[in-house]
Specification:
Layout (H helix, E strand, L loop, with lengths): L1 E7 L2 E9 L4 E4 L8 H5 L4 H11 L3 E3 L4 E3 L6 E6 L3 H10 L4 H9 L4 E7 L10 E3 L6 E2 L2 E7 L5 E9 L1 E2 H6 L4 H5 L5 E3 L3 E2 L4 H4 L3 E8 L2 E9 L7 H9 L8 E4 L17 E6 L3 E9 L1
Parallel strand pairs: 6-17, 8-19
Antiparallel strand pairs: 1-2, 1-5, 1-14, 2-3, 3-4, 6-7, 9-12, 10-11, 10-17, 11-13, 15-16, 15-18, 18-19
């Protein structure tokens, strides 16, 4: 089951919908669920949503709608150095701080940092940004853990953690500038619910980057390559913190373009995760 925001080509107002078969969307706004976050606060989410679909008076083919980011005002955070490939890449980019990435990969406490607010994220088809003062910009395709306001892990979605590798590599203290800026995060299109960690760890993650319609990079990895358990990441995210509107956590990337590659305005980033779907965004300079 997948939950998200959608609108039609003739009506720009976002409505909450759910698909069970990837063919049709059942509208939930008409039965009092006004956001994906509302749906995730229900008791037994899957059973409750299935019950609501029987009351829905609107059913629309998925192919006939456009998707928005499935977030409102949730905070979005990110975990870093959770894949061995990510650790290697970040050590390569850093002149002064390579050992910090090596140490945090094996440490009890993970790297967790603030990424974006929900209302600042890009949804499917909306631009993701590269900083105009950066020389080396890359996308980072990531599985995203979704939490409700009680801190329950209730679903998964797709995220793109845009990064300025040259800025971060110059000095670790520049990490917030390398990671958090306008259009630095894309989320969507769906939140997948009713899936246990063991199933999610069987999913593959793939990314391709298109330039003038031609593929200039492609790569893949497996969710199983994430070193830390989801419960471990959840525990550290919620340690000494509360999220009254819920939260999302990007879980790190295992797909890293070669060091000589950098994004350009007009590129398109396409990320696919088994069990969730496809997130595609054009690239723009901010």
């Amino acid at each position: 089951m997948k939950i998200g925001y959608y609108h039609t080509p003739t009506d720009p107002i976002l409505r909450t919908g759910v698909t069970v078969d990837n063919v049709d969307i059942f509208d939930l706004t008409s039965v009092g669920i006004h956001s994906p976050a509302d749906a995730l606060e229900q008791g037994d989410i899957v059973d409750r949503i299935l019950h609501l679909t029987k009351r829905s008076s609107m059913r629309i083919p998925v192919a006939n709608v456009l998707m928005g980011p499935p977030v409102n005002d949730q905070e979005i955070w990110a975990a870093g150095v959770t894949y061995l490939r990510s650790k290697t890449a970040r050590m390569e980019e850093s002149d002064f701080s390579a050992s910090a990435y090596d140490r945090v990969y094996d440490a009890e406490r993970p790297e967790i940092f603030f990424k974006a607010l929900g209302w600042k994220t890009s949804g499917p088809g909306r631009p993701v940004g590269i900083r105009h003062d950066a020389r080396w910009s890359v996308p980072e395709p990531e599985l995203v853990l979704v939490y409700n306001r009680r801190g329950d892990h209730v679903g998964y979605t797709i995220g793109n953690d845009m990064s300025s590798r040259d800025i971060e590599g110059e000095n670790l203290l520049y990490l917030p500038q390398a990671k958090t800026y306008s259009a630095s995060c894309a989320i969507g299109p769906w939140i997948r619910v009713g899936v246990e960690e063991a199933e999610a760890r069987s999913w593959g993650i793939r990314m391709e980057i298109l330039r003038d319609g031609r593929q200039v990079f492609a790569g893949g990895t497996q969710v199983s390559q994430i070193k830390r358990s989801f419960s471990e990441l959840s525990r550290w995210l919620h340690c000494c913190q509360k999220f009254p509107t819920g939260s999302m956590l990007l879980t790190g990337t295992g797909i890293v373009p070669p060091n000589e590659f950098t994004l350009q305005a007009g590129d398109r980033v396409v990320i696919e995760i088994d069990g969730i779907g496809r997130l595609e965004n054009p690239v723009a300079v901010v």
